[in-house]
């Protein structure tokens, strides 16, 4: 059920279905940002500076992705509830390691989180396309493409 009515030209059924696809992504991508920031803050490694700066870029890209997906869900009539407890409950990502992290541990954990997020985006892209929402399909494709660049960059730090 849509939380709010709006003038978006998609049918109420399509808006509701796509909104239900987008909301879990908002939780997962929000959780991904927390993983990136944990690695950013807790990294202790001879390669600290280069990875620390890279993770600033990743966090900014992830934050932009969260905002765009959440705003699309709102355009379709959904209401956001992205409190930390709700994110923890609804995210599909595994827990992130605690404490100080070396490059290997941080990058490995981030690759798992990024890969899980990208896999979820790919599934959602297919679902939105099948439902007939080209705008959401395009948006999720863009967000996925931006995150896939960081999969490659972070993976390149693994020796």
Provide key terms for this protein:
5 helices; 0% strand; Ferritin; 159 residues; mainly alpha
Structural account:
This protein is an all-alpha fold. The protein contains 5 helices and no strands. It has a single domain (12-155), classed as Ferritin (Up-down Bundle), CATH 1.20.1260.10.
According to DSSP, the number of beta strands is 0
The major pleated sheet works out as: none
| Unreliable residue stretches | none
What is the approximate shape?
elongated
Strand content: under 5%
Helix/strand-derived category reads mainly alpha
Using the 3D structure, state the CATH architecture: Up-down Bundle
Residues in helix, %: over 70%
Number of domains: 1
Oligomer: single chain
Quickly name the level 1 CATH class.
Mainly Alpha
CATH domain fold name: Ferritin
Ends distance: 49 Å
Mean pLDDT: 95
What are the secondary-structure elements, in order, as H or E? HHHHH
What name goes with the CATH superfamily? Answer: Ferritin, core subunit, four-helix bundle
Radius of gyration: 16 Å
Tally of DSSP helical segments: 5
Brief account:
The protein is built from five helices and no strands. It is an all-alpha fold and 159 residues long.
Topology:
Blueprint: H1 12-42, H2 48-75, H3 84-90, H4 103-131, H5 134-155
């Amino acid at each position: 059920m849509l939380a709010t009515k709006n003038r978006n030209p998609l049918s109420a059924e399509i808006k509701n279905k796509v909104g239900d696809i987008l909301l879990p992504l908002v939780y997962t991508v929000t959780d991904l940002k927390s993983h990136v920031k944990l690695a950013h803050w807790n990294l202790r490694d001879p390669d600290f500076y280069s990875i620390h700066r890279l993770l600033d870029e990743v966090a900014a890209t992830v934050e932009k992705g969260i905002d765009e997906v959440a705003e699309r869900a709102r355009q379709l009539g959904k209401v956001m509830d992205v409190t930390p407890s709700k994110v923890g409950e609804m995210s599909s990502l595994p827990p992130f390691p605690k404490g100080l992290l070396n490059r290997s541990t941080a990058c490995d954990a981030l690759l798992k989180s990024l890969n899980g997020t990208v896999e979820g985006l790919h599934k959602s892209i297919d679902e939105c396309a099948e439902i007939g929402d080209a705008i959401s399909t395009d948006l999720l494709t863009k967000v996925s493409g931006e995150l896939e660049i960081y999969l490659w960059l972070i993976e390149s730090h693994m020796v």
